[in-house]
Automatic annotation (TrEMBL):
This is sulfate adenylyltransferase. The keyword Transmembrane helix does not apply. Residues 46-195 form the ATP-sulfurylase PUA-like domain. Residues 205-425 form the Sulphate adenylyltransferase catalytic domain.
Length: 428
């Protein structure tokens, strides 16, 4: 019976693919777990067990759009959330959280199913007229992205959300500032019917597409970043392949977020251009041959420990078995006194505490520093540098951006010259 069910599912998927629909598998209830194992081979199991895909078949789009009672133009952040729900990056979600689920995630970091979710996924609005039962056509810069069925509408306790998710309620924190000053006063929850993705300057592969380019019999180590990749980053993620808890033959997936982030960060389109240049420069090196690249339309929250969990489960859905946790992962500083909101290893400790249940192995990043002169330099661990007694080179990201704006020369020990050339030409 299982083989018959598999054949039926494969034939149905082939017919849908020929018709232009996204390729997906829906197993019969009695054999869904077995079929999932066969389809996913030895790759990482999606969060919740099934890779969600809310996109409707092309032939059904017009009928779905016709059901909408109101059109909502989304913000950059909202569009990122919709795209990641639709393509399964936020599996097992099939839509925005309803009030009960929102309250559970805020307080306990869990969905009603028991699955972990680091941060709540909500649609916000100031529209008083939206009511339960409405069908909203969600658009973004000319793209009809989804139809949302409103199942819940409420006035959220934003201070509680900020305290629980960000560890603070002060607007000095960029995530708190976003919740308090950018989001609308109401939250609405409900399922999505996916329609399309926005046109971008850079491609954003879906979890299913990324899984197809990853090995099915080896560990996959994910590296998250929201900035151009500099030399320290490159050394960090390539050396992670030799970590003691990473198996032989592993590859690294460099998976930068290209959505909204902190106000002073370099924009996503420019960051993507630096990645393209670095790929070209390193593709034939031993490290480059073990490196895969993809881009994530994700909106950063700078939520430290809880955002580290969010990043881990998203990369789990993309097929990754391991995740590099850097110092002060997704951290932020006060806009008033410059003090860090989170400890340097707080995200690492939180990730380790939840790793077994989440099913993703955290790989603590090496504390690498640069020693030597401007020409002859190398990256070694801070412990080794201390033992040698040599001077450690330092340049902060803030200072780096200031030097770029001022047209000052950037030392090659800090950044690849090719990356700097792109930033000087593209970043304003």
């Amino acid at each position: 019976m299982l083989y018959k069910a598999i054949l039926v599912a494969l034939l149905a998927a082939a017919d849908a693919f020929q018709a232009g629909a996204p390729l997906s598998f829906q197993a019969p209830h009695s054999s869904s777990a077995s079929l999932q194992q066969l389809v996913m081979a030895a790759k990482q199991v999606p969060h919740g067990g099934t890779l969600i895909n809310t996109f409707v078949a092309p032939a059904n789009k017009a009928a779905v759009i016709a059901t909408a009672t109101k059109t909502i133009e989304m913000t950059d952040r909202q569009s990122c959330d919709v795209e990641l729900i639709n393509n399964g990056a936020l599996s097992p979600l099939k839509g925005f959280l309803n009030e009960d689920a929102y309250n559970m995630v805020v307080k306990d970091m869990r969905l009603p199913s028991g699955d972990i979710l680091g941060l709540p996924l909500v649609m916000d609005t100031n529209d008083e007229s939206i009511k339960v039962g409405d069908k909203l056509l969600l658009t973004y810069k000319g793209t009809q992205m989804a139809v949302m069925t409103v199942e819940s509408k409420w006035f959220p306790d934003k201070p509680l959300e900020c305290i629980k998710c960000y560890g603070t309620a002060t607007i000095e924190h960029p995530g708190v500032r976003m919740v308090a000053m950018e989001r609308g006063k109401f939250y609405i929850g409900g399922s999505l019917q996916g329609l399309d993705v926005p046109t971008r300057d850079f491609p954003c592969a879906t979890p299913a597409e990324v899984r197809e380019m990853l090995p099915g019999d080896a560990d996959v180590v994910a590296f998250q970043c929201r900035n151009p990749v500099h030399r320290a980053h490159y050394e960090l993620f390539t050396r992670a392949l030799d970590a003691p808890n990473v198996g032989p033959g592993a590859v690294v997936l460099v998976h930068p977020t290209c959505g909204p982030t902190q106000e002073d960060d370099i924009d996503g389109t420019t960051r993507h251009k630096t990645y393209v240049k670095l790929i070209e420069e390193t593709k034939d090196t031993p490290s480059g041959k073990r490196t895969k690249w993809a881009y994530l339309p994700y909106s950063m929250h700078m939520a430290g420990p809880r955002e580290a969990i969010q990043h881990m489960l998203i990369r789990k859905n993309f097929g990754c078995t391991h995740f590099i946790i850097g110092r002060d992962m997704a951290g932020s500083k006060s806009s008033v006194d410059g003090e860090d909101f989170y400890g340097a290893f707080e995200a690492q400790d939180f990730a380790k505490a939840n790793a077994e249940e989440l099913g993703v192995v955290p790989v603590p990043s090496l504390n690498l520093v640069c020693v030597g002169d401007e020409v002859n330099f190398e990256y070694i661990t801070a412990e080794e540098a201390k033992a040698r007694g040599g001077e450690v080179k330092k340049l902060s990201g803030t200072k780096f951006r200031q030097m770029l704006r001022a047209g000052e020369p950037i030392p090659e020990w800090f950044a690849f010259k090719s990356v700097v050339d792109v930033l000087r030409a593209e970043w304003k």
